[in-house]
Amino acid sequence: MSKTKPATAAAKPPKADKPKLVRDSFTMPKGEYEVIDLLKQRLTGLGRTAKKSELLRAGIAALQGLADKALLKALEAVPSLKTGRPKAEPVAEAKPADQKPVKPAKPAKPVKKAPVPKKAAAPAAAAKKPVARKAAPAKPRAKA
Fold first, then answer.
1. pLDDT (tens digit, 9 = 90+) per residue, 67-80?
2. C-alpha separations of 77 from 54, 73, 74, 116 in Å
3. This prediction's pTM
4. In Å, what is the CA distance from 108 to each residue of 101, 113, 114, 127?
């Protein structure tokens, strides 16, 4: 025997597949990163808000539409950068010239802890018994 699907299921239009999203990170010069905020402010003035990802995707779409020579020219205008995370800026500390360097402290020896005695397992008969509770009286509902 074969089961038939209800007519309502056949009447539904097929669900459109959402594009798969990819999360990524990249490094860019601070000046170019600040241009993103300037473009966002410019778009807000035009009555359209935008997210960083929307601006980047719009830029990619614009590059995709360029001819080969124009694409190469646009890429040559952007300097190549090292990949990876930028190094953290070191905190400058003022050291007098006559001060000797401080030797790092030796690691502390681990402290031995006294063993904790294990508790004996309670017999099954001594297990806690469930406590019977009285049911709370039902509250009358207020009439609306």
1. 999 999 999 999 88
2. 22, 6, 5, 69
3. 0.47
4. 21, 15, 18, 45
